[in-house]
């Protein structure tokens, strides 16, 4: 057997496929491509954020964004008498900084905690947040795991679930051209194999029959979604199953004694997510601010992300005794939490309202709110426990909870 290069993620993946008898599930590949220690996209030395990276987040587009999120956080903290905020995967720390800036501006104490698995990103967050006041930094802690004994406060998952590995399944149905019998296998799990064995060649997709457990789950999903649209999925329909995101939701909800889990990401309800016309799924790559679909190219150097099935997230939370307190588009959440007032107050302090900086802020606001940009695709979901029917300010208008189809999908 040839030696495996310690600094080559593709070689490491090929070696792992070889160890697994020539086949690796896509979720395992995605996990390695993103998180392999020192080699994965999020665990390497390079920051993926900003103009020099591969993408920008909403907080980088406008500081008003973080102030809006902070307003919702503060409402919940005040209602339950807590100062505790816990953010999962805080990226470059920009959103945390904006939330803490808002809290300081209204003299609201806030104990901010971050769970960050990437050592590189943790350092990036600490560098950014240390630039604030010493008092603010003293209220910050980085945790290795969920706090024990039950958490009271607000948990924040901002663009987190889209980076969790998914399993891939392919639907095949009887076809007069293939003469497949109706009782033959209809579900296959998509994984990877080595195109030319362990010692060389590239990576390629390979499908194998799904077991009875997964076939039953997928059939149930298909039947539920067909209550909204009757047509069959096309032959070759690709299904993304968010097993890790569901497990994460379950564990986090178990840890929340009282308060709010605020989930922010791009995605759809199940009946929209699994539309027959979306037969290639939603998995995308991002590199140098360009989106692509070659999922196997250069693992470790490009982002892999997937849209979120918000119906599945909500269902798991409800099973854990949580309440669904709101689900709406990003644009609606920002309007509800007063982004126009915040932006107007900020503009009033600008001496030259047609300066490049002022125009850039206006363009950022447009990007956050426009249906053609981020305003419609990104969603906010509020999952709560023990809030006694608190009317959350971010969801007072435009709530789409009824579109999640929780009685079906």
Model description:
There is one protein chain. The chain is an alpha/beta fold. The chain has two domains: 9-40 and 167-241, no CATH class; 58-161 and 244-275 and 306-404, Rossmann fold (3-Layer(aba) Sandwich). It is 35% helix and 22% strand. It has helices at 9-19, 26-35, 58-61, 63-80, 94-105, 119-130, 134-138, 212-225, 243-255, 270-273, 310-319, 330-336, 339-348, 356-369, and strands at 24-25, 84-88, 111-115, 140-143, 151-158, 167-171, 187-194, 203-209, 237-241, 256-268, 284-287, 290-292, 303-305, 308-309, 323-329, 378-385. The strands form three sheets. Strands 2, 3, 4, 5, 10, 14, 15 and 16 form an eight-stranded mixed β-sheet that branches. Strands 1, 6, 7, 8 and 9 form a five-stranded antiparallel β-sheet that branches. The protein has a three-stranded antiparallel β-sheet with strand order 12-11-13. Strand 7 (187-194) and strand 8 form a beta hairpin.
Short account of what is shown:
The chain is built from 14 helices and 16 strands.
CATH topology of the largest domain: Rossmann fold
Cα shape: globular
Q: Which series of helices and strands comes N to C?
A: HEHHHEHEHHEEEEEHEHEHEEEEHEHHHE
Q: What is the subunit organization of this protein?
A: single chain
**Uncertain regions: pLDDT < 50 for 5+ in a row?**
1-5
Whole-number total of structural domains: 2
The helix content, as a percent range, equals 25-40%
Number of E strands: 16
Distance between the termini: 48 Å
CA gyration radius, whole angstroms:
22 Å
Mind telling me the CATH class of the largest domain? Alpha Beta
**Strand content of the residues, in percent?**
15-25%
On the 0 to 100 scale, the average pLDDT is: 89
Major β-sheet annotation? 8 strands, mixed
Q: Return the structural class.
A: alpha/beta
Continuous helix count: 14
CATH architecture of the largest domain: 3-Layer(aba) Sandwich
């Amino acid at each position: 057997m040839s030696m495996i290069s310690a600094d080559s993620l593709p070689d490491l993946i090929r070696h792992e496929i070889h160890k697994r008898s020539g086949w690796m599930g896509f979720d395992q590949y995605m996990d390695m491509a993103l998180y392999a220690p020192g080699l994965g996209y999020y665990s390497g030395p390079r920051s993926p954020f900003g103009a020099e990276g591969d993408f920008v987040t909403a907080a980088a587009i406008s500081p008003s964004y973080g102030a809006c999120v902070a307003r919702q956080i503060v409402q919940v903290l005040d209602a339950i008498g807590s100062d505790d905020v816990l953010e999962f995967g805080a990226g470059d720390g920009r959103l945390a900084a904006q939330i803490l800036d808002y809290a300081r501006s209204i003299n609201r104490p806030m104990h901010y905690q971050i769970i960050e698995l990437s050592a590189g990103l943790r350092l990036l967050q600490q560098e950014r947040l240390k630039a604030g006041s010493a008092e603010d930094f003293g209220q910050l802690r980085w945790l290795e795991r969920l706090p024990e004994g039950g958490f009271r406060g607000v948990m924040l998952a901002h663009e987190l679930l889209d980076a969790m590995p998914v399993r891939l399944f392919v639907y095949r149905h009887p076809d007069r051209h293939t003469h497949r019998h109706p009782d033959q296998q209809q579900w296959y799990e998509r994984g990877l194999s080595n195109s030319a064995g362990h010692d060389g060649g590239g990576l390629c997709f390979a499908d194998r029959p799904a077991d009875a457990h997964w076939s039953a789950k997928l059939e149930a999903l298909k039947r539920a979604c067909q209550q909204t649209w009757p047509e069959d999925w096309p032959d070759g329909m690709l299904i993304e199953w968010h097993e890790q995101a569901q497990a994460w939701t379950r564990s986090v909800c178990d840890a929340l004694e009282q308060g709010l889990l605020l989930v922010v990401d791009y995605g759809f309800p199940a009946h929209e997510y699994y539309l027959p016309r979306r037969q290639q799924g939603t998995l995308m790559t991002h590199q140098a601010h360009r989106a692509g679909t070659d999922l196997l190219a250069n693992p470790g150097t490009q982002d892999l992300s997937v849209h979120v099935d918000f119906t599945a997230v909500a269902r798991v939370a409800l099973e854990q005794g949580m309440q669904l307190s709101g689900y709406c588009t990003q644009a609606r959440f920002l309007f509800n939490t007063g982004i126009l007032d915040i932006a107007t107050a900020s503009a009033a302090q600008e001496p030259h309202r047609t300066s490049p900086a002022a125009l850039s802020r206006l363009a950022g606001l447009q990007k956050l709110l426009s249906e053609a940009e981020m305003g419609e695709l990104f969603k906010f979901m509020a999952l709560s426990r023990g809030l006694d029917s608190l009317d959350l300010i971010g969801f007072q208008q435009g709530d789409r909870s009824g579109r999640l189809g929780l009685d079906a999908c």
